[in-house]
Amino acid sequence: MRISILTVLVIISFRLLAQDFPSVLADKECIILDLSGSVERENSDLIYKWDLGDGTEAYGITVEHCYDSIGEFQASLSIIDPISSVNFDDEYGETIAVLPAVSLEIVEAKGEFGLDLEAKLTGSSITDATFYWSWDNSHEADKKLSGIKKDIKVRVLARFMFQGEETFLSKEIVVGQ
If you ran DSSP here, which 8-state letter would residue 63 be given? Predict the structure, then answer.
C-alpha cells in the first residue's frame, strides 16, 4: 500500500510540474486617482477621461482601479469640453509600479559534488511551502537540491497558501548559466 501512495504522489507531482505556472505573483494593486481638490467648481461639467495604462478607461474626477498584473503602467488624463468638443489630451500623467507580492527564486551555490540549489519565496512572509524539483527524469520534494551538474535543466514548483488559496509558482533554469 505504501508503494502505491508514493506512486500516486510522484504522478501528481509530475503532472503539476508539466503545467506552466508563473514565477511571480501580483497582489492586486488598487489605486485612487483624485483630482477633486484641484478642480474648480466651474470646471466640474468637463469630462475627465482616464487611460489607466492597462487597456482600461475610466471617467470622473475621482477614479478607483485595481491592476491585475505586474509591471509599470502610465495612467494619463484627457479632459473633454462637452460643449465645444475640445479635447485636451494627456493633461496629467502618473506612473504606477505594480511589484511582485511573491517571487520564486533559485539560488545556486558550489557544493561538494556539483552545484547545490535552494528554492526561496521572496517578497513575502510565506514560511510554509513545499518545493518539488524535476531534472533529468528525476524528482525530489525538498527545499534544497544537492550535487547537480552544470548545464542540466532544472525546474522547481512551489506549493503554498496565498491569500487563503492553494497557490503554485514555478521556475526553470539551466544550472550554472
Answer: E
- In the numeric block, the cell 471617467 is attached to 59
Q: Domains in the chain, ordered, with CATH?
A: 2-26+101-174 (2.60.40), 29-99 (2.60.40.10)
Three cell numbers, residue 161: 497558501
Q: Which amino acid is at 37?
A: G
Q: Cα(96)–Cα(38) distance, rounded to whole angstroms?
A: 20
| Residues whose CB falls within 8 Å of the CB of residue 19, separated by 6 or more in sequence, listed in order | 168, 170
Q: Comparing C-alpha atoms, which of 157, 70, 96 is closest to residue 121?
A: 157
Q: Are 175 and 155 in contact (CB under 8 A)?
A: no
Whats the size of the chain, residue-wise? 177
Q: Find residue 106's DSSP bridge partners.
A: 119
What DSSP element (H or E) covers 11? Answer: helix 2-18
Q: Which three cell numbers stand for residue 174?
A: 539551466
Return per-residue pLDDT of the chain as tens, 177 residues: 333 333 334 434 444 444 567 777 766 678 888 888 877 766 768 888 999 999 999 998 889 998 888 888 999 999 888 888 888 877 788 888 887 788 899 999 998 888 999 999 987 677 789 999 999 888 899 899 899 899 999 999 999 888 788 888 899 999 988
